[in-house]
Amino acid sequence: MKTDTKDDMTNIREMVLSFIRPTQAEKTNLETVRKGIIDDIVKIARREGQLDIIPISVGSAERNTWLRGNHDIDVFISYPEDTSFNEFYQKSKALLTEMAKTGDSWEDRHSEHPYIHIRKEGFEVDLVPCFRVKSGAEIKSAVDRTPFHCVYIKENIRGLEEDVMLLKQFMKGTGVYGSEVRTGGFSGYLTELLTIHCGGFEQVLKQASEWKHGTLIDIAAHQTIEHDDPLVVVDPTDPKRNVAAALSLTKFSLFIDRARFFLKSPSVEYFSKKEYPPLTAEEYKRLAEKRGTKWIAVSFKTPPIAEDTLYPQLFRLEKSLKEILTRNEFTAVNTFSWSEEHKQSIVFLEVLNDLLPPLQKRVGPPVWNESNAASFCQKYKDSPDTFSFAIENERYVAEVLRKHRSAAPLIEDMLFKEAALGRHVRDSLKDGYEILQNEDIEKIESEAFWKFMNEKLAARIEP
Amino acid sequence: MKTDTKDDMTNIREMVLSFIRPTQAEKTNLETVRKGIIDDIVKIARREGQLDIIPISVGSAERNTWLRGNHDIDVFISYPEDTSFNEFYQKSKALLTEMAKTGDSWEDRHSEHPYIHIRKEGFEVDLVPCFRVKSGAEIKSAVDRTPFHCVYIKENIRGLEEDVMLLKQFMKGTGVYGSEVRTGGFSGYLTELLTIHCGGFEQVLKQASEWKHGTLIDIAAHQTIEHDDPLVVVDPTDPKRNVAAALSLTKFSLFIDRARFFLKSPSVEYFSKKEYPPLTAEEYKRLAEKRGTKWIAVSFKTPPIAEDTLYPQLFRLEKSLKEILTRNEFTAVNTFSWSEEHKQSIVFLEVLNDLLPPLQKRVGPPVWNESNAASFCQKYKDSPDTFSFAIENERYVAEVLRKHRSAAPLIEDMLFKEAALGRHVRDSLKDGYEILQNEDIEKIESEAFWKFMNEKLAARIEP
User: How high is the ipTM of this complex?
Assistant: First the structure.
């Protein structure tokens, strides 16, 4: 049996690698484009009189851990540490403005930090100015760590590059790769650190299958701060930072599950993401009927901001609407957020019970919370709409006449009163929104949405 | 203002005491009966050759803290500490058998410990054999503490007897007096200790209005064990015992509330319990319609056991049925147990939503709980009735086809499978039970029940 599994694993590795190893042509191409960009930076910097900048190639391309078909190039442009922020902004702006012209197209991705994205000869290129600080622990701006990450990985990854590739592909196939807020999965740097720490692809899976909430990996044994995250991987270049801080509990848990099942019965299936075709109107109708639940959705124009700024606001709204429903005794079995750039953003809530009786039970504060107790008593004790007023366990409870017996009017009423609204979401909602129910949802016209819905409604962890 | 309140309080004390102070005739009568009983015990013991027993008068009658109309006499019969259990049982049985004949009627209240109850000349008399141990901390049987309680109170209560009476009456009026399981309120000994500790009736209320969960009162400053109870009053005669262990969180909290409101605006109202007339069929129908909820009740023959043995079993059943409903996404807003001796016992559940959609969401174990996770996966992952199988946060979740869309068939199905059944309740259920719903509940014929229902449905803490 053991030999079989080992053979299986070797076969699987080889088969997957034959699909994901970059081709020689791809490598040469990437090298040429990258060299061209660095030459451009140096040339333009000289022209601008910026003689003390150093271009630093970072990212998976530099570390030989990138996957076939990946066309990302990341180049950092470092300024001396003692450059003032003002000078830094002005100089980097001048440099980036000129660099933008070298691309086939470009975008300003500046948020707190100046940075541009250009497309050039089929490559997606990030150009990021930073400070040349002494260590990852003494950064002046958040991006200053990246060059240290790159050095650390390059020094430690030798011989494990293909294990990183396998791990990345395994994570893509199982839906846990990508550290953007929308995904909440594993970043590239995190997969590299895990591979180094554990000693290889299978070794990562073996350890992961034993992980629990709060698992700590401190490669450099220099942690200085406690983190309350599902997984804590202390950055070997900065003792204060958890590299897995963006990893959601769901993706962490899914990875544990997938690692465990894969090890029990290894298969190439784990390395390719299941594609869900868009749900058709008829399929949706049939599914909705079979489920028998009520869908409520708040739809509004997508604010013109980066996804990583938008999604935290969508998730906050989603969570607070769910809490509002729960407080009012509606059972939201599923909630999710979905957004399409330039089009609409929607927060969905699937409710089990959409018609509640007139009676509503309000659970108040504990009796020993005197000021809250007093205001709860004042509000409900003598109201004509109060059926009963009593104490249960340590809390006041009032049975009152329910204001909204259905979920949609409740949400409409509470949206600006009790929901948690981030700045951009609030602005967009103020410009207008719709509250959709089952039949209205059918009418949403977006292939991406119906793929997403299919994936959500038919979700099966497989194999 | 202060003077007014003080005058108010003095007036209230006097008025209430004028109603609850035992009359001279009552006192004389009680003394005569008690003396007669003790004489009988001594006489019979001599006849039986039991020369080493000592009758000990205990209870509120002995402490002068009883209320008018109270006709309880408690007499303990102590045997030397070195008496063997076997000898103790045999001797006390012989003695109690003869004593039983002196009453107008009698009952064997023996459970773990031999003890009889007799009625004599209008008095309710408990006769309890015990061991004459050295201290309350070194008892041989649970009842051996009582004589020490009595001694302690007699030594410390002088001058505060009327404060105890007022406190007892206040607790009766507000529904928190009585330490039987059904009530879960304050015992007589507890009211006496609180009065001694605080220094008087009003002082108890003042302190109580500041109580929080976990409040500790250790009069003898000798606590040796931590208790996880709402209120901990360490027995001055036994450092390991919490005198308030039987006090429920609800009654504890209600007393805090009532103390606070009374002190804000003292009134005699607090000293008399509101009477609820039985709800008529029409009133119940109208109320049920107004609430719009669904009532489900499990009704069965009351087991022929003491209430203090029955009620823990009823409460366990009530709690577990509520949990079954919650697990299956029914919202039970109210639950309660009711029982009538020789007739029926009923556990009631008031459900907000009695028709659920076909979809049911099952929340499974965390991924890192490997053995439970494996059995959850096996049960749901590939079932044809599973809509979806996924991970949310740290847990497996399955959307499955709901087996019971209504609460009554669910409870019927789960009663012997998942509900927590105490021995006597299980036996009675096996002999037969009914699951009642709204209309069936109307047909319950019991004045006591309809009084109870009225109190539950119209509950208002007043004033």
Answer: 0.90
